[in-house]
User: Fold these one by one.
Assistant:
Number 1:
Amino acid sequence: MTDESWAGWYRDGNGSDAVVLTTDGQQLRIRIRGTDFEGESFDRLLPVPHAPPESGMFALADGALTDCVLEWDLPLPVLVAGAPRQATLGCLLSLRRADPDLHLALHLDGAVYESARAESDFAAALTAIQRTLPDGIRLQTCIACAFSDYFPAAGRGLSGTLACFRGAKDAYRGTAGEGAVLDLWDRRTGSVQEVWSCKEFETRPAEGAGTGHRGAFPQQPLDSVEPLEPA
């Protein structure tokens, strides 16, 4: 995967700073006030071991960045009547010690399609946006892909726990239900960010085989709790 970089802003009680978020679809990286943070989810951004922050410079909970606001824009591919187009996704994330609040806004052809103001995770926010889009417009990111799923459990994290099965496409096309995904889990390629997209994207089926554990997209919201990991 090739890295993507997204320009944005970081704000906390100490002020506001321009930042650049970088991701390869799995690992997120950001430098704030000379300190590097990285992690697989936006709510698990940890200082890298060789660059611990100065005391009091950042609020940390269990070692991860918290009590701050991240705001950034990223290019987001969509399909309009089956043809690829580029939209822009505005992201506003309030990282709080208890529950993060997320708001997404998709800008396309002068129109804006928004999630609720306080979504609990990227899957729910992108689902809300897909439901507001006119017929014939589909998101073209990992959350909408035919080869992605969550581990069969009670919930999911804020971001980055979506499993990719692009290395087992034919097998995943036959999945429907929790048991089928569990049987295939060890063949997953890895985890990906919900807003990521790759050249192997295929539109998720609306029902039946190939909808795995999480079902079609847009799917019904799940409670946003940490997913159980397989043994």
Number 2:
Amino acid sequence: MSHKTSKYAIIVAGGKGLRMGADIPKQFLPVGGKPVLMHTISRFHAYDKDLKVILVLPKEQQDYWQELCEQYHFNEEYQLADGGASRFQSCKNGLSMIPADTVGLVGIHDGVRPFVSCETIARCFDTAQEAKAVIPVLPVTDTLRFTGDSPSGRNVQRSDYKAVQTPQVFDIQLIKKAYEQEEKADFTDDASVVEHLGQTVTMVEGNRENIKITTPFDLKVAEVLVIHNS
């Protein structure tokens, strides 16, 4: 691959709008002294200061985000794209900010995963240079029970399963083409969208700290991780 290829990260921050009485969306909650989303953006620039970041945020949250950026003196570079009605639409909006003829790689990452390691990001981008579609995964440590075919369910071999994380990294032209498809219910992540084109997805090792912050418990874990990482 030539050195003229571009590298992007699309950080998707969904969550409900800031309606009166609604909780503050998870990506704006402070962890270790600053909002989750700022940690996430900073992590990608720590991996590569020249990486182009596109932040996808619901339109009704953008003013609040700008206020937070001023309050926390957050001035890292990124482009802002409007969130869509679904994650699929949000990703599509983010991808549309990348010029049509761009050659290179793009990582798509959950805004509420602020502890992805630079090593994990590097593994995904490095592998994607050849593989074109890469996801970080971890072994499943809990016992799993399948409940689809009976009320009582049955245990399944956890060695048959992996827990999938982000960033999921793709060849830009491939992922742009994939997102031209109609949205389908079985598109559960970006990898499933490119798999629908017949593209093989390659797995690399993720990192255990790369948790998705979705519950109050996760926030408590996040506070510990911030201290551990500082």
Number 3:
Amino acid sequence: MSKVAIVYHSGYGHTKKQAEAVQAGAASVAGASVDLIAINAEGNITDADWATLDAADAIIFGSPTYMGSVSWQFKKFADASSKPWFSQNWKDKVGAAFTNSATMNGDKLSTLHYLFTLGMQHSMIWVGTGLMPSNSKAAQRNDINFVGSFSGLMAQSPSDSSPEEGPLPGDLATAKLFGARVAETAAKFKK
């Protein structure tokens, strides 16, 4: 059995919806157990949550993209992860990440680069989407990987949409495939 932990911050609920889709995809893999850890509005998680991250085979980071990077709440969590970093608690765990923003680009790649660097600081083994983009003339907005990301999962939710309206179904379907890929990879790397 592989243990997957998803640790994320969501400011308005859109990234939470994305995290739940990633969780559903990871949980669809036989033998995977998945924990969803929400970073609270003050940027904190509980001691039990830290223990869950230490025990996981894979950790998936998630944050909305605000002003070209992670939210300050996620950054506070990342800075607090220096304690497991010092002990190399997350070394050789599978790492992956996702983000959401209001615009199609929104500098989401900057956020994924930040999350990738966090994973590399922790000596993790990074997993991208493994999905080809929907980039032909026939592509539709709800196709798999329409946003076209490889290094991590991206979704787009219009700034005036509620979490019920965004991310769109295609982005959520992509999130499920991404979650499954991370759980499958964690099972392959499990000692």
Number 4:
Amino acid sequence: MTDESWSGWYRDARGSEAVVLTTDGQRLRVRVRGTDFEGDSFDALYPVVDSAPRSAGAGRAVAPLTDCVLEWDLPLPVLVAGTLRHATLGCLLSLRPDVPALHLALHVGGAVYESARAEGDFSAALATVRRALPDDIRLQTCSDCAFSGSFPAPGRALSGTLACFRGAKDAYRGAAAGEGGVPDLWDRRSGTVQEIWSCREFEASATEGTGADRREAVPLEHA
């Protein structure tokens, strides 16, 4: 997958600065005040040790990015009455030490469709946005793809919890239709992906809903 970059802002008690968030659909990266942070989820972005300024201190290497706000916009493909259109998804994330608070706002066709102001993760926020959409508008994100499945573990991460089965499409179609067990395909997954990512191999699911909402849940012991 090709990297994609999203321009945005970082804010904390020391002030604000422009940042660029980069992802390949799986790993996330952002540079804040000279330090590169990287991780699989927005609430698990850790400093890349070699990039940390010498003044950061030894403890900086193990502390995730927290006590801050990240805000960015990203282009998002949507289907409007069967026609591909380009929308913008505004993301506002407060990385609090206890519980992150996320707000999404989809701008398409002059209208705005929003999640709640303090969603707990991207799957929940996208589900709220999806429920607000007119019947003829459908998202084209990994969370809406026929080849993705949610990881049904309690206390899931803020993002990056979707298993992708684009490498086993036919088998996964059959499993999702009840012709086999999804857990049997777990080892054939192509990894996990960000819920707001949009892959060139996207295929709309036959029914609304995502992950565990539309197909057999994958037991935790198979992860």
